[in-house]
Amino acid sequence: MPRSGAERSRALPASPETIAQAGRLLAAGGLVAFPTETVYGLGADATNSDAIARLYQVKGRPARNPLIVHVADIAEARRIGAFDARAERLTAKFWPGPLTLVLERAPTCRVVPAASAGLSTIALRLPAHDVARAVIAAANTPVAAPSANRSGRVSPTDAAAVVAEFGDALDLVIDGGPSPVGIESTVLSLVGTPRLLRPGFVTVEAIEECIGKIEIGAEAGPLLAPGGLASHYAPELPLRLNARETRPGEAFIAFGMIAPVDAAATLSAKGDLIEAAATLYATLRSVDRKPYRAIAVAPVPETGIGVAINDRLRRAAAPRSQE
Ligand code: TXA
Ligand code: MG
């Protein structure tokens, strides 16, 4: 896909023209970053093994870590994954939206095995962002899209962060403004007993209200998903959690009442968890630099979307050796 360096190194605002261009590039095997309601995704045609190989390579993602396949409508999802009654109930309630379902592949599934790391299962998501859906519809193919960051790093919630992450390595970055939810989708496996693989905006309580009791946490086994690696979503600087005061060299990230006068930033001055999720990654990125030598974050309550915020913070603070 010959494109000039100048064109490739910046984001273009979402418009009917750039969305059509994104669709053409994806259909031709290109890599296109686009906004979703959770975080920006780095998309490739899920039915094209060359495009998927390039996606893994550019992202630096281990081949054993499966991708989420994004669709523009539920009919396409049903061709890819084996929907059961639970999937029907959940998608009726939460789609389009930040809930990813892991299902057995349907016999009609055209997604290449490499996109799901050779597993018999597949992760599916119908995003609630108009630009995301328009891009996928324009591509006229299911789109595999991990978060548009290099493996192990903080997910981007705006187009500038994607450009900072990848420079001109992508064919196109579509700018649709900041991602409103701010952290990645909830991942729920419906293979056998329902099991939460990654907490997110759609809470366990909301899921259980819809389909009854679910198990929590990835099963021990060969599948080490990115969300299952101890260190993930990590800034460059070391991170200290549940902090209440600023130590020398630290950038303090406040939340609600835990806000020292010398705090560098706040997730939410009024202690609002939804606002904190929306600002989390941009805040981490903004203080991940000199003159700071470390980042400290105030305690965040373990309720509602706070569960997902704390999950990401714990991974960001985990020892980096596993990356
Ligand atoms: O909000 C999101 O989900 C974003 C936006 C771009 O849609 N995408 C995202 O993708 O976070 P990624 O690749 O960064 O995370 C995919 C998650 C991982 O935890 C992965 O292990 C899990 O989905 N996953 C994918 N396929 C799976 C499968 N077949 N079985 C179990 N887990 C799977
Ligand atoms: Mg990711």
Any idea what the radius of gyration is?
19 Å
- Please identify the top-level CATH class of the largest domain: Alpha Beta
- What structural class is derived from the secondary structure elements? alpha/beta
Share of residues in strands:
15-25%
* Ligand types: threonylcarbamoyladenylate, magnesium ion
Q: Termini distance?
A: 32 Å
Q: Major β-sheet, in short?
A: 11 strands, mixed
* Share of helix, binned: 25-40%
Please state how the strands of the largest beta sheet are arranged side by side: 1-8-2-3-7-4-6-5-9-10-11
Q: What order do the SSEs take from the amino end to the carboxyl end, as H and E?
A: HEHEEHEHHEEHEHEEEHEEEEHEH
Number of helices: 10
CATH H-level superfamily title of the largest domain: DHBP synthase
Reported by name, the CATH topology of the largest domain is DHBP synthase
Taking pLDDT < 50 over at least 5 consecutive residues as the criterion, the unreliable ranges are: 221-226
Number of domains: 2
Name given to the CATH architecture of the largest domain: Alpha-Beta Complex
Number of strands: 15
Shape: globular
How confident overall, as mean pLDDT? 93
3D structure, described in words:
The protein is α/β, with parallel strands linked by helices. The chain folds into two domains: 5-216, DHBP synthase (Alpha-Beta Complex), CATH 3.90.870.10; 239-317, no CATH class. 30% of the residues lie in helices and 17% in strands. It has helices at 5-8, 16-27, 49-59, 74-80, 85-94, 130-139, 159-166, 204-211, 273-287, 306-317; strands spanning 11-13, 32-34, 41-45, 68-70, 99-104, 121-125, 143-144, 172-175, 186-189, 195-198, 215-216, 239-240, 250-254, 265-266, 294-297. The strands form two sheets. The chain has an eleven-stranded mixed β-sheet with strand order 1-8-2-3-7-4-6-5-9-10-11, sandwiched between helices. A hairpin with a 6-residue loop joins strand 2 (32-34) and strand 3. Helix 2 (16-27) packs across helix 6. The longest helix has 15 residues, at 273-287. The protein is globular. The protein starts with a helix and ends in a 6-residue tail after the last helix. The model is unreliable at 221-226 (pLDDT under 50).
